[in-house]
Amino acid sequence: MKLTRFEDLKMWKLAHKLFIDVAEIVKTFPKYEKYDLANQMRRSARSIPSDISEGFGRSHFNDKLTFYERCRASLDELRNHFHEALGNKYIDEVCYKRFVKKIKEIGYLLNRMMKGVQRARDLYKNEKRLTGHSRRSLNSIHEVNNVSRQTRLFAIRNAFIFPERSSYFQPFMAYFERETLYSSLLWLTYIPKE
Question: Which CATH architecture fits 6-123?
Fold first, then answer.
């Protein structure tokens, strides 16, 4: 299922609920903290769902990651403010642990989202790299079959020299072993799953 609205994200729902809870808890703080700690807690809590929604609305991978990183920084800032509130005895230990648990849950979901965006960005770059060079230079079946033996040997040699990148060269190795059109077409459409 493809998400089309930021309101459908579990992470945003939790962050929005966190902001509402923070707005309620700071009402119990002393009046002299109204424009200091309470204000900072409200602002950092408000920026979390805002950054999630703005990042969700961006279409470029790096833009999304920028807003998600800001969100993560706001989560850390809010956790620090709760630590200060506990130190000043504006909240008790139970309340502190409850809010820190919520913050960690949102942080966990946010990190998973960021890893997914990074993975999608890397796959896009690899696909662009493969399709940008391979399909343009080897655009017909005859050219695929005429890939030089030296090129195939070079790919196999690189697979042994760079074992961490061997998945990039596996299709070429399969082509060299079987010498079939099918495996050469797999090589043209191959996208690494790392």
Answer: Up-down Bundle (1.20)
Torsion angle (degrees, nearest 10) of CA 112, 115, 120, 122: -170
Q: Do residues 54 and 100 touch, judged by C-beta distance below 8 A?
A: no
Give the residue from 42, 39, 41, 52 showing the smallest Cα distance to 11.
52
Q: How far apart are CA 71 and CA 15, in angstroms?
A: 10
* Alpha-carbon distance values, 189 to 105, 152, 153, 159, 169 (Å): 38, 17, 20, 18, 13
Q: Which of 52-56, 66-70, 158-162 has the lowest mean pLDDT?
A: 158-162
Q: Which of 153, 141, 156, 146 is nearest to 188 (CA)?
A: 141
Sign of CA dihedral 87, 93, 97, 99: negative
Of 49 and 143, the structure prediction assigns the larger pLDDT to 49
C-alpha to C-alpha distance for 70 and 160, rounded to whole angstroms? 41
